[in-house]
């Protein structure tokens, strides 16, 4: 499954601690070491895009994708006013299908994610590993604590611009072959994290970046893309919206069951399993109409089969505040500079207040 299939971007960006100097006094130095060393290995594997384009041994398909990525990268800064810096001007082939693997966890009767806290980045609802086996071990530890847990591959993450001195975040083989519209979404999303980032508020950060990617790709397709690219993206987006509607409905129904204090745990568990069975049946129904190679749906199928509270809780971070940000963008007349300024002002507010304002903005736009 490509990033973006699970309600906007389940396989979204994860921020790892970028400064080893900030780690003194932390008990889990092993985790920070794997984060820092894994990131540095990735940076060392990256070469400037122009070097790849001049490489006589590089496949032509890769060169075409890299050339496209640089047009998208230039558009991101010139038209969307995203940062103009070294990020996404180099490329690395990691020889694997994901850059990291994320772990998420949630209680048996709640969609609220367990959080892990780090220096600099604050507390987030996921924990990333460069080694899949280590990620799965972390998930098992969460299960031993009584949580439901999930592990999923991540094609890209952002260092929030902190590593631009070292060449910035590179393009990777894990997403470079995405279709045009999805590649643009990925680059816009990750650059958006360098515009606004709030410690301890994953939902605000990811919803903001998701709104930027959606708004940005709409403009890219309208003004820069071929008719074929627009048609390909329209088909992809139709599937995304179908799946998003199904998962949002399931999430709301699960939340209602968990919030009903009149239910005993056995009854709550029964209703939970009924909703999950209904979700999987709904997925089979919409999947049948997609007419895609089963190999392309392998990860989606796996996610649906294993979906639990942690899976649905992770989706909320990328989804719940997006309508509010989109309404905010419309309220400033589609002016990117004003939009970013307003987002930064919201970021300075207490967490509950900024989320309430985004909800109010969304509701006002529908009035």
What does the model show?
With 367 residues, this protein is mainly alpha-helical. It folds into 2 domains: 20-317, no CATH class; 322-365, no CATH class. It has 13 helices and 8 strands. The strands form 3 sheets. The protein has a 3-stranded mixed β-sheet with strand order 1-2-8. The radius of gyration is 20 Å and the shape is globular.
Number of strands: 8
List unreliable stretches of 5+ residues: 1-27
Which strand order do you get reading across the main beta sheet? 1-2-8
The domain tally reads: 2
N-to-C span: 36 Å
Quote the beta fraction. 5-15%
Short summary:
The radius of gyration is 20 Å and the shape is globular.
Present the secondary structure layout.
Layout: H1 29-45, E1 47-48, H2 49-54, H3 60-78, E2 90-92, E3 100-106, E4 116-118, E5 122-124, E6 127-129, H4 132-144, E7 148-154, E8 171-172, H5 180-192, H6 202-223, H7 227-259, H8 265-288, H9 298-306, H10 309-317, H11 322-331, H12 336-347, H13 351-365
Helix pairs in contact: 3-5, 5-6, 6-11, 7-8, 11-13
